[in-house]
Amino acid sequence: MKFLKYLLVGLVFGIVLTKSEAVSWYRIYEMFHFQSFHMFGIIMTAVVVGVVGIQLIKRNNVKDITGQPIVIPNKDKGFTNYMAGGILFGLGWGLIGTCPGPIFILIGAGFYGIGVVLLGALVGTYLYGLLRNKLPH
Question: What is the model's pTM?
Fold first, then answer.
């Protein structure tokens, strides 16, 4: 029962992504070919909501559910690591036709071939864990 709230948030998240067509391979294809504003609009809306939310948390000294202040550390300065990560993420997104967020949504919608993508994501995460200390951060 204590995980019910997480299940409900995940369910709502899945419904919103599905109804907004953010899980559609065709919409992602359109985005990478600059044929439609649809996905760019969704992404820009998410960025604006995130920036506003973070600013509200920082400026109002918001506390978490245990009463501790939420502290969001500044990101390290860097360029190469962010460019390399962004290029890898974008290439994977373009080749697969989905980002990691909707993997479970697509499996739940009956697209079982995406299980191969889930397996690849899990293997990639495991390999990153093994190599993390040797990678530039």
Answer: 0.70
